[in-house]
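Field notebook, page 328. I keep forgetting to write these up properly, so this time I am using the form the group agreed on. The chain and the ligand, NAP, are recorded exactly as supplied. Prediction of the bound pose follows.
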Amino acid sequence: MKEVRWGIIGTGGIAHRFAQACKNSDGAVLSAVASRSIENANSFADEFGIPQRFGSYKEMAESDAIDAAYVAVPHGLHAACAILFMNNGKHILSEKPITINSSEFFKMTECAKRNKVFLMEAMWARMVPGTLRLMELVKSGRLGRIKGIQGSFCYDMSDEPNHHAFSSDSGGSLLDVGCYALSFASWYSSAAVEKITAVADIGKLNHVDEHCCILIKYTDGTIASLSSAMMLKKPNEGYLFGEKGYVKVGRFYAPEKLEIFIDGCPEEIIETPYKGNGFEEEIQEASRCISAGLTQSPLMPHSQSAYILSQMDEIRSQIGLTFPCDVK
Ligand SMILES: NC(=O)c1ccc[n+]([C@@H]2O[C@H](COP(=O)([O-])OP(=O)(O)OC[C@H]3O[C@@H](n4cnc5c(N)ncnc54)[C@H](OP(=O)(O)O)[C@@H]3O)[C@@H](O)[C@H]2O)c1
């Protein structure tokens, strides 16, 4: 199989993690990096031994050095970056959330279709072995029908006031990490959403949700209770409660351990370590799909990103959080 030549857009925290993982990912080779500054591009490229470096995103988009680009800029810029690269015939793996709202995502998918390129949200949590094992467990029926789902992804960013999670044009805990909790719930609830209810604490300084709590009722009676926060720590655990038992999933967005309880008693612990830093599976999945000529991943199709974005649109309307791009 021909290796997919990847280029990274941006040189921040997550770009570093992707570059590291790319070295251990079958079917992928890291060929280029683009930064707003050539100095940053050079130092990033030197750190990871990347042959091509660009001092602007546009230059890399227009070059023949890459087949696919990984969007690793703050989420308010995902759509514009992805569209720039797709219009230049490049496949896209975009960090989560793939963009800010459903209408921006519609523009991205239309662009992908027009240019016949691959587009996938980098939801690494969907690809890691722990999630795949958990899906098998639920399917096996050992827990009975899942009737309750719980998950919180909360962290404290008070010492990083300049982080993009505080940005008033695309910040907040919902978009930053609530998307993981919503995704977790979506993977274990097959019925349609009947009702979503959300409340949030909106920060006085930056006017984004610092803490958001969400209840989702599905038409089969299942209820999910989810939360996200960026100025508050909580145990970042997930639970699936079934008719016969439940499973505790430590760090449900990258589970490495599944603790199974039947009739309230501990029954089994399944270790599910992931390879490397956890990004290898998503890089391999995107590279595999691109090499096979697919425009979507069956594991993380456009419909899944659209589903989560529509829920986040609804939640933001309930908590009164709008961004400039919502009204375009
Ligand atoms: N999958 C995960 O586990 C995970 C974890 C953290 C973050 N993320 C996602 O990854 C994306 C990037 O997050 P990050 O934590 O890597 O951010 P970061 O450390 O702030 O880096 C973002 C990079 O984007 C580029 N950039 C372009 N325009 C910018 C602007 N106006 N302001 C700031 N940076 C700008 C910069 O690179 P240049 O200056 O070199 O162009 C910067 O280094 C976000 O969408 C986030 O949600 C995912």
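OBSERVATIONS:
- The mean pLDDT is 96.
- The radius of gyration is 20 Å.
FOLLOW-UP: compare against the apo run.
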